[in-house]
Amino acid sequence: MDTVLLDMDPGHDDALALLVALSCLPVRGVTTVAGNQIVEKTYLNTRRILDVAGIHCEVVRGASKPLFRPLVVADRVHGDSGLDGYDFPLIAPARSVDAFSWLRQRIREEPKVRWIATGPLTNVAVWLMGHPDLREKITDITVMGGALRGGNVTRYAEFNFYVDPDAAQYVLTSGVPVSLVGLDVTHKALLSFHEFYRFKELRTPVGEMFYQLFAFFSQHEPNAGPEGTPVHDVLAVAALAQPHLFQWTPMALHVERCDDEHRGKMTVIPSQGAVPGVNVATDIDVEGFFSWMWQQLEYYRK
Ligand code: BDR
Ligand code: CA
């Protein structure tokens, strides 16, 4: 498979997405973005997760705010650190190289790249804007974001699209093939509480970390309930690794870039003959997805 790059804002579900991706995809590196928390924290969190897993993977720090708006963080969902619930060991401070030069270099040297983005799309949009000559190197971008019906931060908007609607609109209409995994499917795949013990049963620091992180997340995620907790971002990894687990419908989409209650709302533009640009996940084989996810996590068993 082509080389994979990750762009994320860890975040509890990003943490799961990161380690599942590393277990099964040829991941070349991670760029971090401001979203669930400020970028200094999402950068540190990414390094902390890798440290617990004992995995070396390049991490660089990207955009500190959305394209044209002040940052809105999800501290009520992910806590003050962005990864509350687990007491991470201290790690040495690091200085990041510039994310956009790093991306330019990586993408130039690879024949083709597949990108997974599980935070606001700021880094991806800025990079696409600045590198029209390298766009054809991007096979596709798999995005966790948006919702056809019902948001999680407002009545209409999903968090990642709400935070940077301008970047979302740019990426979805950029002409680069996009596979979109939004709340319409992530709210179907709920991790039930009685399954949390399976993290613990891995009997490794990674298992303990996920057990404690998801204990916290399940108390704070607005759509967690008696049936379980959404695990949003790891579905984007599944969408790339196991696309047959989803039902896909091509659509032309528009993201509202206003400042009223419609900010970040995603709407479908009726197609007028042209091939719609975005492949939207409209259904998921929930059982197949979880069975695949637990299989990948075996990588972290003692
Ligand atoms: C998205 O918002 C963030 O809080 C999660 O990490 C996920 O990417 C779900 O709406
Ligand atoms: Ca995220």
Order of helices and strands: EHEHEHHEHEHHEHEHHEHEEEH
* Low-confidence regions: none
Number of strands: 11
Order the strands across the largest sheet as they lie in space.
3-2-1-4-5-6-11-9-10
The CATH homologous superfamily: Ribonucleoside hydrolase-like
Predict the CATH topology.
Inosine-uridine Nucleoside N-ribohydrolase, Chain A
Average pLDDT figure: 96
Radius of gyration from CA coordinates: 18 Å
List the total number of helices.
12
How does this model look, in words?
By secondary structure, the chain is an alpha/beta fold. Helices cover 36% and strands 19% of the residues. It contains twelve helices and eleven strands. It has helices at residues 12-24, 39-53, 75-78, 99-109, 122-130, 159-163, 165-172, 183-186, 197-200, 205-220, 234-241, 286-297; strands at 3-8, 27-32, 59-61, 113-117, 138-144, 178-181, 190-191, 229-230, 246-255, 266-269, 278-284. Helix 1 (12-24) links the parallel strand 1 (3-8) and strand 2. Helix 1 runs antiparallel to helix 10 (205-220), helix 1 packs parallel to helix 11 (234-241) and helix 5 (122-130) packs across helix 7. The longest helix has 16 residues, at 205-220. It is globular, with a radius of gyration of 18 Å. The mean pLDDT is 96. Beta-D-ribofuranose is lined by residues 11, 13-14, 36, 74, 77, 118, 144, 152, 158-160, 232-233. Calcium ion binds next to helix 1.
